[in-house]
Specification:
There is one protein chain. The chain is α+β, with helices and mostly antiparallel strands. It has five helices and seven strands, in the order H-H-E-H-E-E-H-E-E-H-E-E. The protein has a five-stranded mixed beta sheet. The termini are far apart.
């Protein structure tokens, strides 16, 4: 991984938990409730994890060396908590347990959630569910043109003038590091649908 790409990936993914930490700091300053401090601590722990993940990617390449059983519902809920989702709704029905690097899988989901909110709008509905050999993440936004569905995974591509173009590149890198196949299609509502196949389930 080139230095400039490394820096862009780190800064891109740190925005999610950093914004969450800032939001709960504002709430703590306004209310004085200690429960907000717990969320700030969790956000900072997440930032440490992201830096460690990207360092690993830079040093070892696109591989995953250690995996563990990861509950689909739990990792989905955790990823949702570290993204500024505004008024968006999460519809999660991913109940299986898979073999994965939990932190990097969460990073993948965080990027997909952030991408959906940015492009489908603040009131989007984002769904995560089961596939026969994996899982999917889809939204009810405007979708992605068939002509752009391969290009969106390229480093630096963004349809948003203020976007970094790294979110979906990171998604693809993490999927490939697990030997998963990622494809982009259209949801039943006409939005974007990302499918991940070749995912190994635990206990089946």
């Amino acid at each position: 991984m080139r230095l400039e790409e490394f820096a862009s990936v780190v800064s891109h993914d740190l925005h999610n938990p950093l914004n969450v930490a800032q939001g709960f700091l504002d709430l703590y300053q306004a209310t004085g409730k200690d429960e907000h401090l717990d969320r700030i601590v969790r956000a900072h722990d997440r930032m440490v994890g992201i830096v460690e993940d990207v360092l690993t990617l830079a040093q070892q390449g696109q591989t995953v060396s250690e995996t563990e059983p990861v509950d689909g519902t739990a990792v989905t809920t955790s990823a949702w908590a570290f993204v500024e989702t505004e008024s968006a709704t999460l519809d999660a029905s991913w109940d299986s347990t898979i073999d994965a690097d939990a932190s990097r899988l969460q990073q993948l989901l965080e990027n997909l959630f952030r991408n959906a909110v940015e492009h489908a709008g603040p009131d989007a509905t984002i769904s995560v569910g089961e596939l026969e050999t994996g899982f999917y993440v889809e939204d009810d936004g405007p979708g992605i043109s068939p002509d752009d569905r391969e290009t969106v995974f390229e480093s630096g591509y963004s349809s948003d003038e203020g976007g970094t173009g790294f979110g979906l590149t990171i998604v693809k890198q993490i999927a490939e590091a697990h030997d998963w196949r990622v494809s982009l299609g259209e949801s039943s509502a006409g939005g974007a649908r990302f499918e991940f196949a070749g995912v190994e389930r635990v206990g089946e």
